Amino acid sequence: MAWRLYSLDLSRLEGTAGEVLSGAPEGAEEGYPASFQPLEEPWEARRADPVPWPEPLYFVDGRERGEAVLSDGRRLALLGCVAAGAVVYQQGNMRLLETRVRRVGVGLEEALRLGELVYEPLPLEGPPSPGDVLTALQEGLRKARTLLEEKLAGALAGGLLVVDGPVRLRRQGPVLGYIKTHWARYLPEDREALLSTLKPGERTPMFRVRRKGQELASWYLRLPLPPEGVRPPESGLLRVETPLQGDFGALADLSLSLFPALASHPVKDPRAPQNLLPVGGLERELARRMGSREVVVRILARHQDSLSADLGGG
């Protein structure tokens, strides 16, 4: 059978599909092991003297967006767009360094051209079970974004790399990952109490995190908060991590000079203060380069009659 457009409104998919295609939180399945291991004692708030930022200082982030679902009556495929970009701080200036954008067809075996849109084929790695099809499609899109981020980061020489999210890529040189939302607990209850008492510019002691063959040092820090408003206890809280190698303790202290200085303000960013200024600007630029989803939907709808011919049938 021929491929046809199944849905242009991903929010209307039944069951958990809407959640899956809008992007489930990364790292939500992770948490602290029974053998929690602190890397510093005593377990109390820590401050550090200000230190200059290393240069070059890179910030890398990516975006993914599902744009349509195809069906041939037996299979589903996801058309999506992924983007990655880098910002660099050097000689007192922050500037956009590079952006990369790809359109992919997760589950397709041939490229698809619809007007000016070209979706590269990204076959699934083995047939998923019927109940996991949408999850597999979203995971394929996420892997495409991660690969784009890794390729971009791999081309950055020297300096310190900061990534929005967990540290999953590997590079020569130091890297810091920061996590804005806290779906998982990394601390046992008796250690977790320290989080609510952290003041802006303070961090917890470091603790060990193991993830898929990686050994990481992690810690929480508090960003500055505007004086007005009522806030939940996790406001301004970041979890930061770095590979457990080299002088990771110095990176923990450096983070207290770096992240608070880059915190956003709620007047300009509803995700403030955790959405750091250079990353927020990079996200907006990536969204612009990915193009308006409304325009993409109109293009797809306009070319849906030629879809089966472009894919050579089913």
Automatic annotation (TrEMBL):
It comes from the Bacteria. Residues 81-276 form the NurA domain. SUPFAM superfamilies: Ribonuclease H-like (SSF53098). It holds the Pfam family NurA. This is Nuclease. It comes from Thermus scotoductus. The lineage of its organism: Bacteria, Thermotogati, Deinococcota, Deinococci, Thermales.
